[in-house]
Amino acid sequence: MLTLFHSSLATVLLATALPDTVVREAYVMGTVLRIKVEAASDVEAFRSAEAVLAEVERLDGLLSTWDPASEMSRLNRATPGTPTAMNAEVAALLFEVEEWTRETGRAFDPAVGALVDAWDLRGAGRIPGPDELDAVSRATGSRGMAIDRRDTTSTRQDARAWIDTGAFGKGAALRSARRILAGSGASRAFLDLGGQALVWSRGVSAPTPRSVWVAHPDQRSTATIRLDLDGVSVATSGTSERFVDVGGRRLGHILDPRTGFPAPAWGSVTVVHADPMVADVLATALYVMGPVEGLAWAEKRGTAALFLLETAGDIEPSWTTSMEAWLGPATIPSTQWQ
Ligand code: ADP
Ligand code: MG
After folding, report:
1. Are 158 and 290 in a shared domain?
2. CB 164 less than 6 A from any atom of ligand 1
């Protein structure tokens, strides 16, 4: 039994009965990171958990758009029209993100900062007029922020343009954490970073998969469908938890970069993928596509995705073929979800 304390920001939950398991909780990336690590000894488990936390904090220091001192904030503040050299790690992530923007037909595009501001999604919310929306849309995507692969620079093309890392930062951090776990003394780990989880074990397969319940899109504490996971990450995107109400309209925090409007609230989508960053990216992308276009897109590409469509008083689940490998045998009948 080992109990750990991390600065004043963090609280530690309980340590389990197993002497080689460490459980700790810390506040990072604007959310809570829960770490459970198993190793051959307490000391190894402790070291691994600390290394994971330090890595997530490091990624936050690169990618945060809330911390003015981060690398991403520096790029987002650069003088418009002036190419700015990028940190190599951030550059590699942005190159990857650009590819997903193309692959998803711009359902996923983090260069939507100007739209986040126009709708005031980080404040009380507001409804921009059509002319404003039109002008602001021209400050998004590669027209707003140009990334140059040859000389690893980014150039803000417009004073309103900035990149919002909200839809891939947690996934990028979990991917880095996975690399840290692989190089540590840990044998198994479960990480939960603000709702995105990583189920990790050394070797091909853990003796028993870990069950993760997908929450009801509207009621966080209500479990709906069970996923039995191993060696993968699971990410969910939905708008019911984060929104602002303006003049009788509810604006979700996920934007459709193709229209400039917030994506409508329809439920949630959960993606399981070996790569945590891909899970994060695709959950947001499929949410923007919606349960019909999204399901077809994910099926065609072999993505494991589960859609929970909210209907009057109930939810209607649908999933792709590759999600079936993860679906637990015991799912609660839909009448109990209400
Ligand atoms: P959460 O952060 O709640 O887990 P997501 O991973 O879906 O949810 O990310 C949503 C965040 O991504 C938004 O808060 C915003 O910062 C940013 N964002 C909004 N719309 C898009 C989009 N279409 N593509 C990329 N990033 C987006
Ligand atoms: Mg995401």
Report:
1. no
2. yes
